[in-house]
Amino acid sequence: MSIPPALRFSGIVCVDGGHLFGPVEVEAQAGRWTCLLGPSGVGKSTILRLIAGLGAEFEFDGEITASDGHPLPPRVMMMAQDDLVMPWLDVIGNVTLGARLRGERPDHARAREVLRRVGLKDFERRRPETLSGGQRQRVALARTLMEDRPVVLLDEPFSALDARTRARMQDMTFDVLEGRTVLLVTHDVAEAARLGHKILLMTQAGMTAVSPPEADPPRPLDAPETLSTQGALLRQLMEAA
After folding, report:
1. 217: cis peptide before it, omega within 30°?
2. DSSP letters for 17-69
């Protein structure tokens, strides 16, 4: 993996000639987790899509840049809220899908190592319909890691999981994405409070930076400073409604 850059998104977004949101500015720190928190419909996922080069349906007036000056999209991998696991492929086929789509020879040895890292060592020949929701999310995470990109965009990847599985997946994802520049979109104040090195609150009024707890993430769920930040974020969301 190459050295991750910081990234910056700044501008106004329109759709069908109508103003959607902005101006807003998002700066994600190099090699750290930036959490973009906000209610549904304010444009968080649109920002991720534009950074990933997937927002052709939007009109964007602004700039998306990497701190090192090199093009950003080729170095970005996005993990969506839906696991997008292909039902006709087994686990290892899903994990190596990117290489196959590019016409490359899949690296099955590396795929097995990635599956081991996400706790699916003996699952490579399992079919998606035999997996739980948490296991499917791990397949999606393994597929993300196989791309080995320095910048990772996460669009509410844990929102469909139960509380216990969500906490475990947060911890695992934080561990396996160590050293990458991560921009996580979430509407969960607890998730932002425990995972963000930097927390940005996006509402209809614009973008606000919120101080994270002093402890390094991932923070204990019940730590006083985590709960305090969680409460502060929720108050700001309610006041902005």
Report:
1. no
2. TEEEEEEEEEEEPTTSEEEEE--TTSSHHHHHHHHTT--TTSEEEEEEEETTS
Find the length of the chain.
241
Which CATH fold would you assign to the domain 7-240? Rossmann fold (3.40.50)
Q: Could you report the per-residue pLDDT of 4-13, keeping only the tens digit for each? A: 999 999 999 9
Q: Copy the structure tokens of residue 213.
A: 């707890």
Q: CA separation (Å) from 84 to 50, 102, 143?
A: 19, 18, 10
Q: Which of 73, 76, 116, 74 is nearest to 95 (CA)?
A: 116
Mean pLDDT score, 5-25: 93
Closest Cα partner for 115 from 130, 133, 93, 98?
Answer: 93
| Whether 93 contacts 46, CB under 8 Å | no
Secondary structure (DSSP) of 123-168: -TT--GGGS-HHHHHHHHHHHHHHH--SEEEEESTTTTS-HHHHHH
- For 141-160, write each residue's pLDDT tens digit: 899 888 889 999 999 888 87
